[in-house]
Amino acid sequence: MTRRLARICRHPIKAHGREDLASVLLSAGACLPGDRRWAVAHEAAKLRPGWNPCNNFHRGAKAPQLMAITAELRGDAVTLHHPQRPDLTFRPDDPADLPGFLAWIAPISPKERAQPTHIVSAQMGMTDSAFPSVSILSTSALTALSDRMNTPLSADRFRGNLWLDGVEPFTEFDWIGRDITIGDAVLTIKERITRCRATMTNPETGQVDADTLTALKTGYGHQDFGVYAVVKQGGTITLNDEWSLS
Fold it and tell me: Which residue from 14, 67, 113, 153 could staple onto 36, CB 3.0 to 4.6 Å apart?
């Protein structure tokens, strides 16, 4: 099997849109540039300085329609697209743009849930890990889970950063503590990613339509998909770069 980098993806606003990239410069100890640079806090949030856990934020596990958002980050401005909403371009750091964003997100935010109130800027990236991480997933695991569920699953359900070809399904779990070289960068694999209900939502429609969590549990004895890594050595990575383990 050819070991290559099949996809690079970032999520400028946590849980509010995804964007594919052709190439990116990774920096040691940092998230993928622009990934989870902002997060949307809700009215029940209990925020502390620095990193905060995901239950403080508006997210796809509680608001499935968020999974259908795509995004474009250009400088300090983000453009959001959703099949049920007009396109919105705004600056998350500009307080004057906040009311427009909240009005845009309101129709696709469940009324019975805590409502979004403001946007948090995070220099380290507001990932689901308490350390600046880059998520790595395998296309073969996605194919294996799709076959088990007898339905084609979009990679966008899993909101990953780097997708790899050329690995047997789920063997990335055996890489904990090892280094992986992709292009000019070296990353250290840290831990498995345990999944939430967001993966049950179709990212094209925003509708819950596949019980991925039960399929993982019954098929493999866990609810994990992909691994978190930290950038050990910075460098440029590009689609179709070869990768290797050490």
Answer: 14
